Amino acid sequence: MFNKKRRLSLTVTIVVLSVMFAMIGQVVLAQQDDPADFTVEWPKQTRPAFHATQFMVTGAVPPAIMAGAKILQQGGNATDAGIAIHAAANVTDPALTGLGGDAVMQIYNADQDKVTTIQALGWAPKNATIEYYMTEHGELPSRGPFSVNVPGGFAGWIKALDQYGTMSLAEVFQPAIELAEKGHPIYGGIGDRFSEYPSTTAIWWKEEGKPYDTGDVLIQSDLANTFKKLVAAEQEALASGKSRSEALRAAHDLFYKGEIGKALVDFLNEQGHVWEYEDMAEFEATEKPPITVNYRGIYDVYQNPPCTQGHITLQALNILEGYDLKTMGHGADYYHLLTETLKLCLRDRAAFIGDPDFVEVPIEGMLSKEYAAEQRARINPDQAMVWPIEPGDPWKYQTETTSLLPKPKDAALTLAMNNADGSKANIVYDGNTQTFNVVDKDRNVFTNTGSINSGWGSGMVLPGYGFFLNNRFVTYQVDPESPNAIEPHKVVHHTIQSVLIMKDGKPFLVVGTPGGDRQTQGTLQVVLNVIEFGMNIQQAIENARMVNTMMHISRSFPYNVGDTVEMEIIAGIEAIKGMIAKGHKVAIKQPLSIGGNLSGTVIDDGALYGGSDPRRRGYAIGW
Predict the structure, then answer these.
(1) With contact defined as beta carbons under 8 Å apart, do 188 and 95 qualify?
(2) Can you tell me the distance from the alpha carbon of 198 to that of 283, in angstroms, rounded to the nearest whole number?
(3) Paired residues of 439 in beta bridges
């Protein structure tokens, strides 16, 4: 309890901090600094959790979430609603996701009582090689035609809808078509970027030569027509007597083998690239079993398999299982433990995770309890690890295989790339992504994370079709021994993932977020807030967040690493001082400022509890 003098001091401190944060964004403290005045009282929740019984939709932005709710009210299931949301998000958030990007999904099908995943991650074109890129460009371009990978997302939409949905493409695309045709207010315009690309300015600039900005209503006729063409391919196939699966396949083939795929290849080649028709025509999304661990004998935790970073959450839970987190509470010991655990898991990611069709990934060893115990022993409870940090050795816990694939070599790392004040010493490209989750009346679950990589992807709209093309290529590496070295038709490692947790054989929690390397770090904390600390889903999301800036947030080659830990000021003075005492450099961040868009649903005794992140524009809605 503060006295009046202390409260006045606190008020002055908050005002000073507000001005300070507005000027520099963060304060980095090391062992010699005293953060005595760096404290803010903060409510546990700024909004309530959303309660419902029939369905819950969380994440993305309100219009896209409403698209999913409409489909559920029309009798669709969780997968139908999920595809409707993703299509609508292409209209409302084209900077983040859409037809030109990638997606991963986790689905719990109640009828089959199974959890499955769909990987819709595009690959590199056939002519993409390290030699080509380094000879012709000297780097991996971050924007423009040479940054584009094959967009895999739509193939995943079709596979999910075919295998686990009930509605037609015409039905689930209707909300997106309506939003695109009638117009949608822009939130955060494109600014004056990408003016060198006529296909982009044709849509995103006004007639007077100025870009559309926040609040302007933008009609996206080309995008609406693209959705309509895909629907027409489906409907024509149905009219000719084709099955539902064959009709959905007709839409898939229009995108990858037909008019749209050919237009994409021709457009990139007109810009000087060397794509081939087969780069699009031969691509398929894949359905794969999830990776999973059991936590404390109670929770079965499922994640997306390689080449995503889903393993990080599972590895971290295995390590943290050896500690009494409830007794520890949200203090310095807890945040230190999270930080050190994540360092080990992220380091393994760089060393071992690549396309499992090209390199052997020791995922069994990485998720073994024995390996977790070995990694746990590396953590000093009183002293922060500093770079360089070596990866672990999960191979000793990997069952013998006859795999002919090469074992990955350790990825190159660039050390100490952060400046002393925590700012980046090199150029980074923030990941921009959209995540949403759906639970329906039958307790089917659909969770999806889609991305075009950096904000606005390559910066290029496919002419006549209205969607941005990704710039995923920048995340490959030019080190030939890296698991993510450039190779034709290879899928690069992705950060996109989400968590699905089962309890007593039934869905209990689904949660995910965008945010590049922040994703698994934020998701892990929400999971622990719910299952260890008993928070409701909204409290769990809004609770003070911490992220380790190691390999964060840039995914471009080479990886940049650093030892700074970002902590929201609402973590409290004692936690911050304790972290500093353990040797961490702490970047104090504003309340609710560490990025991401956490959203999730707890399913409990017939009730649904939805939460969403006030740090971005996510919402929860149910019935």
Answers:
(1) yes
(2) 28
(3) 56, 445
Closest CA to 459 of 444, 470, 472: 470
Q: What confidence category does residue 9 fall into, taking pLDDT thresholds of 50, 70 and 90?
A: very low
Q: How far is Cα 535 from Cα 300, in angstroms, rounded to an integer?
A: 19
Q: Which of 144, 96, 35 is closest to 574 using CA atoms?
A: 35
Instruction: Yes or no: say if 362 and 399 are a contact pair by the CB < 8 Å rule.
Output: no
Task: Walk across the sheet containing 585-589 and list its strands.
Answer: 27-29, 585-589, 564-568, 546-548
CA dist 11 and 137 (Å) reads: 54
Find out whether 551 and 342 touch, Cβ atoms under 8 Å: no
- Please check whether residue 220 is in contact with residue 93, taking contact to mean a CB–CB distance below 8 angstroms: no
- What is the pLDDT, as a whole number, of residue 30? 55
Residue 264's CB is within 10 A of a number of other CB atoms, namely 26
Q: Which residues contact 46 (CB under 8 A, 6 or more apart)?
A: 542, 592, 614
Q: Which of 567, 615, 591 has the alpha carbon at shortest distance from 14?
A: 591
- Look up the pTM and report it: 0.91
Q: Cis peptide leading into 141, omega within 30 of 0?
A: no
Least confident piece of the model among 71-75, 122-126, 543-547: 543-547
Helix (H) / strand (E) containing 610: strand 607-612
Closest CA to 275 of 124, 131, 450: 124
Kindly report whether the peptide bond that precedes residue 307 is cis, defined as omega within 30 degrees of 0: yes
**pLDDT, tens only, 129-158:** 999 988 888 888 889 999 999 999 999 999
Measured in degrees and rounded to the nearest 5, phi and psi for residue 184 equal -140, 135
Model pLDDT for residues 380-402, shown as the tens digit of each residue: 999 999 878 899 999 999 987 76
